[in-house]
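#data-curation
PF: Archiving a pair of folding outputs for the training set. Convention for this channel: one message per protein, sequence first, structure tokens after, nothing in between. First:
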Amino acid sequence: MYSSVITGAVTGIESTLCLVEVDVSKGMPAFEMVGQLGNEVREARERVKVALKNAKVEIPAIHLTVSISPADLRKEGASYDLPIAVGILVGLGVIPKENVSDTLVIGELGLNGEIKPVKGVLPIVNCAKNSGLRRCIVPKENEKEGAFLCAAAEEKKIEVIGVSDVSEMIAYLKADEEKKPNIIPSAQYVSFHFEGGMEHLPDFSDINGQEAVKRAVEIAAAGFHHILMVGPPGSGKTMIAKRIPTILPDLSLEEGLEVSTIYSVAGMLENDSPIIAKRPFMGPHHTISGQALAGGGRIPKPGIISLAHRGVLFMDELPEFRRSTLEILRQPLEDKKIHIARTQGNFIYPADFMLVAAMNPCPCGYFPNRNKCTCSQSEIKRYLSKISGPILDRIDVTIETPKVDIKQLSATVKNESSADIRERVLAARKRQMKRYKDTKYHFNAELSGGDVNRFCPLGIREQELMEQIFTRMNLSARAYHKMIKVARTIADLEGAKEIGCEHLSEAACYRMSDSKYWN
């Protein structure tokens, strides 16, 4: 008897529907599997046979042939166990064939018949929803992850059923449609709002002094610009960086789904958090490998820069990273995505993040204070040369973080809180949303070179000033456009309709450190 069951596969972060076909026939007892299968999928034959036996399902001496199509797609992982088991059960007549139509099945089997969680449930359920399927059967631990799409769906509805073992799954699929238990998670599990998380995060009110740095960070957050902080040890660079998420706007529903899809594929969604509702903050150590940063592996998965998508990538002690590792950032900083090429195919991961970097001005950290700095000029040059010109050119804002004065540390003045700064950032973001309505852009930093003149026009005086700045600072075309985009963000923070000379002058100050240290 022939049967077929729909399942899903993940390639990169994209999902594809697959068809598990099972043929049950008389003949020499065998269990054949075809369809360009990885080792984990080939091992499914033993897991499926033992799991069904322990679920009190007797498999007679028959010839089983399993094909997973499309045949030209490499199948990896253990998520095909459950659809193979369902296909066999349908072929044996245990489950009615019509009960698995319009139903996607995914899950890994334990030898005792339990159904274990798998990666990538969110994009697979989303693909099933968009394909018009009616129901998804997933492991119980992945139930809330898939349930988010039940609540988020407006037009196309889909049921997500979580099952914990083979016996429960059989009972569900054998039941008549009107008698099936309603085990879809309630909407309380899929709340997406940013509820009360701010009070547990570090606040900008904890930072005394460094007003210029806080101003630069506010500008970077408002326009989603990349920022580099340069200063001696203990000047507050890391403290400030860790507080940036508290002044960023909440994720939108669309952005949350993008980020959650990446975390689902990476297997990093928690059982109690079926959706990522806060902007990610990733702070890799400087010993990280290029593959861990960019992603990849035998079975490719997202790296740190993709896990920071729509959030903050904080790289502390920037020159301590291997130069080859830093150069990986070139493409994602420009294209907002990263390409991974492997023998089984090409994978594209999103990487639209806000780079926040911090560094000392020299190996000992105290240059240009020659009373404390022990580094030679050649050591300083070698240290700074680890950051290449193309990487510096892609950073919008560079700010010095000087040593904090003792009077500032002991001051009892109430500092501005994250909530106060965030209010101004949100106001600037609203102006950007209005400006870029019906376009592909969301923030000023996203503007391509061709659209800078369209959305950031300069008056005659402003154009003359930019010509002087361009010549004196020896800017590249990219740096020129980035300066205008930063000026546009400064104008948005002030509520100005047009970019003024004062906005351009402040934006130019955020590139002065480049010439001080690297030229």
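PF: Second:
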Amino acid sequence: MLIDRSIRLLVAGACLFVVSGSAQTYLGNYSGYDVAGRAINVHAGSATVRFVFYTPEVVRVDFMPVPGTVFDSSFVVIRDTTLPVTAIVSDSDSTLTVLSSSVRISVSKAPLRVSYFTSSGQLLLAEPASGGLATQQSARFVTFALNPSEHFYGTGERGIGLDLRGRSFDSYNTQSYGYGGALPTMSINVPFLASTNGYALYFENTYRGRFDLGVSDASRWWYRASGGELSYFLIVAPTLQQQIEHYTWLTGRQPLPPRWAFGFLQSKFGYQNETEARSIVQTMRQKQIPCDGIILDLYWYVNMGDLIWNLSSWPTPFQMMSDFLADGVKTIVITQPYITAPSLNFGEASTGGYVATNSTGQPYYLPGWWSCNCNAILLDITKPAARSWWWNKHPPFFGSHLAGLWTDLGEPERHPDDMVHHLGTTAKVHNIYNLLWAKTVYDGLSPFRPSQRLFNLTRSGYAGIQRYGVATWSGDVSRSFGGLAVQLPMLLNMGMSGIAYHNSDIGGFCCGTTTPELYARWMQFGTFCPITRAHGTGQPTEPWGYGTQAESICKRFIELRY
């Protein structure tokens, strides 16, 4: 790296911070810079902004409000700074400039504010004089000017519209039961924002975030992290496709699912016994409706947390799965991270230190759990020993033929603020809980079935989860056309968040009435989604459940998919 190491101190106005009327504390005036290996540190009194190039187009920006600011190890980023990048620093009375072959960073000195340009001089992103990096107690902010023609995409599962400009929302995994319209925040949040102005930002912080994209002030947008320290990765690329390509280089790309996962998958809450499941597969074949998988909900075990077949209802599960395979149908079963009091694993989980605790280190009991009206405990997926213990329960119920998992409730659905995990508080680990669960499944299956691609149907997630082979779905949507309508922007923004294989409950899950028309229209939409899967409760979910006309339409579209 070629660095001009001269440092010019501005002795006038060397205050650390300027306090605004909003009680946010912004950076004050520039006081110098230094270089430490690949890091270019720009100082404003005792605060620092650090720039580290990963490629000429990708630069990490760290906000260090006080000396010794410590950043968490990344749960998301899989790249380091081993690629050679040349960055040249030049200093003038009013501006410090850092230049790579793709990016020009311009640091104004009074006050210290950062602007980003392409190397040819096109303005991409700029902190206004009254904005930039700031603190407010434990929160961290960054505010940028909003280009009049700029539009935003990504950020995960967002049904409020394809273009997110003019929207504000939290980035915090939140389950919504029976939603029938656009919600600002749902179960899958990815703090990656793609812009039509030639850049994207990934915010490297696991705490609850908030985006305001021109709502409180039409001339600017901001991001706030409620805890931890603030880093972001600037990605410079002219198109959204190229921005996503750089982002998935940084955080991991989605492996190819098994071929059968692209077929039609039949699910319900729920098929209650082996006889019913066999009848569904038999009817599919008799009616010549293409189908590659049947998904079993929580009736395959006795109590949530068991991870063992209920042989009273499923007397020959391994033979059943073998028979289904002979008919070209794979079997997928649900699992959850909650272990209920009657479960065979409750005692071992509690005494073995495998669950989340209260402030005294005792298991945190969740009373009145919905599946049993009893106590439940939450697996501490942030603890390596707990992950290993949990995965080792899987091979016996997999047998030789179980084809995949449905990992549910991983937001986590019930996650009190005072719960304590191996890696920290609920506030810190909530968003990454399902990311670590997906990693557990992915890492466990790889040596167990080294020649088999993973199928993991999951409801929640975070940045980077795509690299663990998940197929995400949009949760418990209402049986309504409003519920159907929001699936399209949700699906597209998921794709623009690096998560390719998204889907929804065809026909709707609950809280309304699935009519023959709604089922057929949803199936027509689902036909062209990355994953096609019917699911719901309280009504039929099979194509023949809504009369001969709807069945004929659905069969024709499923055949079209194939």
